[in-house]
Amino acid sequence: MAKYGMAFDYKLCINCHACEVACKEENGILLGADKHRLWIGESEPVGDFYNLARDKGGFLQHQCQQCENAPCLKACPNDAIYRDENGIIQLYESKCDLSLNCMDACPYDARYIDEKKHITDKCIFCSDTRLSRGETTTACQITCPAKVRIFGDLDDENSEISKTLSQREYFTLKPEKNTEPKLFYLV
Length: 187
Hints:
This protein is of the alpha+beta class. It is built from 5 helices and 12 strands. The strands form 5 sheets. It has a 4-stranded mixed beta sheet. Strands 2-5 form a two-stranded antiparallel sheet.
């Protein structure tokens, strides 16, 4: 059993959107669908007009934060959302009634409505495709030309992600929400 997480060396991001395209291809999502599974957002510029700078590097990777204290899991009235043996927040599709409570509860706007399946959906670290085949990378990670993403088992002290997090400073998004996300942004 593993506990998967992802770290982003976000300052390396060149905003090519290869990760988004790879994710959509891997999961059968139409290209151009906005904020489906993962997306790249620009951070807000700071400073005055003549001396603008980008806060936190320019581009931030957004997706399900795989929260240890997941608000979406608690908000689902049908027990359709669960944590699998790898610590990944999943969905029993047959139990989803589109109550949208999970979407309202998520502080990261990571869930969306899958119009084809009539469920709420989100990133599941390619657990139903790549991980289930024994691969140890996600589609977004393997495709990134800038090598922004580090994916792996947080419980394995010898994994690349564990070593990186022990050696580098990082932050998480919206720490005030106390969700304990398993996505880390390297400083």
